[in-house]
Amino acid sequence: MQDILGHLQRLGMSGYEAKAYVALVAAGRPVNGYEVAKRSGVPRSTVYETLGKLVARGAAFEVRGAADATDYRPLPPEALLDRMRREFDGSVDALRDALPAVAGAPEGHLIHNLKDGGALLDRAEDVVAGARRGLVLSVWPQEMARLDGPVRAAAGRGAEVSVMAFGDLGDLGGPRGGERIYEHRYSAPEAVLADLGYRLLVVVGDRREAVVGGFGGDGSAWGIYTADPAVALMAAEYVRQDIALQILAERVGGDELNRLFATDPGLLRLLGRR
């Protein structure tokens, strides 16, 4: 019940309106204000005002009851939710055009810290949802569990999706649509985790915004979001280079790649081994 009330409030109802509407739905028949107050916990002093607001928003209707009294019945839940969806989508579409028109020129590219794992995944999901042309991810199964649906949706709307997976994604790995998923085998995920000490998450949308962060084994998390295209490009290239290395290892073999890394002067210098 608390979940229902919370969702109705997030969609624009006040706490009293949500309680009164749920009471009307649960009654299964027209009821008067006194009974709504008794069923919902809305104070009798405000129940008729609350019902009036539901009627004004079209979520309830007045009907004539016994002795010409006024009873109330709800708009059926399916119809209410369809109406709310239409109104919400209409507002989003209007704001999509209107807000950029009044926005001032930014003084600099947005960048901010993400203080915990929830904020990090929320912002990562925002980047995935905003991607229209390209989406690049470096991700572990724990975080892909949250991002899988939005990633599939991005591929479904035509974004080119490339995923570097540290570990077997299982059901999260397929069947897929337009995504290209590469499992990191050249360095075992356990070795990467032991080396870094955390699970690195990189999400880049359209090479214009990025989330980079890490999840520690103790439940800690850190991260940043940036809309700086230069930083986003670097983050995307980091993942693409990792994917390229994985493809190269599969083509020439891990042993040959290890030999090159151990003997080539240029690679040794880049790796800081000489």
Give a structural overview.
Helix 3 packs across helix 4. The mean pLDDT is 87. The protein contains 11 helices and 9 strands. A 7-stranded mixed sheet has the order 3-9-8-7-4-5-6, sandwiched between helices. The chain is an alpha+beta fold. The radius of gyration is 27 Å and the shape is elongated. It folds into 2 domains: 77 residues, Winged helix-like DNA-binding domain superfamily/Winged helix DNA-binding domain (Arc Repressor Mutant, subunit A), CATH 1.10.10.10; 160 residues, Endonuclease, Chain A, CATH 3.30.870. Strand 4, helix 7 and strand 5 form a beta-alpha-beta unit.
CATH level 3 topology of the largest domain: Endonuclease, Chain A
Low-confidence stretches: none
Classify the beta-strand content into a percent band.
Answer: 15-25%
What's the helix count? Answer: 11
Helix and strand pattern: HHHHEEHEHEHEEHEEEHHH
Q: Write down the overall geometry.
A: elongated
Task: Please state how the strands of the largest beta sheet are arranged side by side.
Answer: 3-9-8-7-4-5-6
Major sheet description: 7 strands, mixed
Work out the helicity level. Answer: 40-55%
